[in-house]
């Protein structure tokens, strides 16, 4: 949810006011149920300016079927919490993308470029909270709302954990699910003052719950068995060897593990099955090659990325990007030819 009140200059582009029009239109058309509160032009009911001004937007949607819209690339000036209660949802941040499943938590730092949709919104129940932490840039210091009762040490720890982890995708737990459920219940209260008061309470609970979750998952990663670290190292170097004809068996054998054990560790590390993660990385590479090397044919790119056929590559690319590789290149560069400078 991009801050409608903000104009952000980044990467020689200006990200201007956004009204979250696709989400509002879907709610008006009745293709999903929307429950939301916020400030300025965000969807749902509006708070008065003095009421929890740090809560830029908070809400839940229930999409009973796949939607023909998505939230395109945008940046927030605040910290965004997202949680998939049911279904699945496409999510991308910078150059990486995920298909989120039930119980997945996302944490997007201020000014990180991201989008929701694959490219359309899948059938899902999704919660979000966009919280202003006083950030003035990607590396600036955070200033939490005064009504957060966490200790200064805890809040500094939260910000440090967020800055030290590259992944925005986490495995949620029962406490995080309960926090979002309580926030949703608060949004149903009839009076704005009641909503604002309950939100302060439940956002405090959410911040503590998420901090505990981050701590637990960090401590778990520090005490991981050797096999886990072997898989982690293998996946890190996999991006340099995507042209090889990897299978689940060959990847597991490379790590001297059985299929089930390798799959378990891969899912824990990436939130994807091994084959899904392999295809995810191959498609990332394909998009880079399409952007940077116009002299390469689609077949050459398919081979370099390790796809066993150009048709399978085209189908996989279209499933994720919403268009074939040829269409993608045509939309971006038209009739240009030759090497394109690295972006």
TrEMBL record:
Keyword match DNA-binding: yes
SMART domains named among the record's database cross-references: HTH_ARAC
Xref: PROSITE patterns: HTH_ARAC_FAMILY_1, HTH_ARAC_FAMILY_2
Alphabetized UniProt keyword annotations: DNA-binding, Transcription, Transcription regulation
Keyword Ligase in record: no
TM stretches of this protein: none
Coiled coil: none
InterPro entries in the cross-refs: AraC-bd, Homeodomain-like_sf, HTH-like, HTH_AraC, HTH_AraC-typ_CS, Tscrpt_reg_AraC-type_HTH
Residue span, HTH araC/xylS-type domain: 232-331
Protein name: HTH araC/xylS-type domain-containing protein
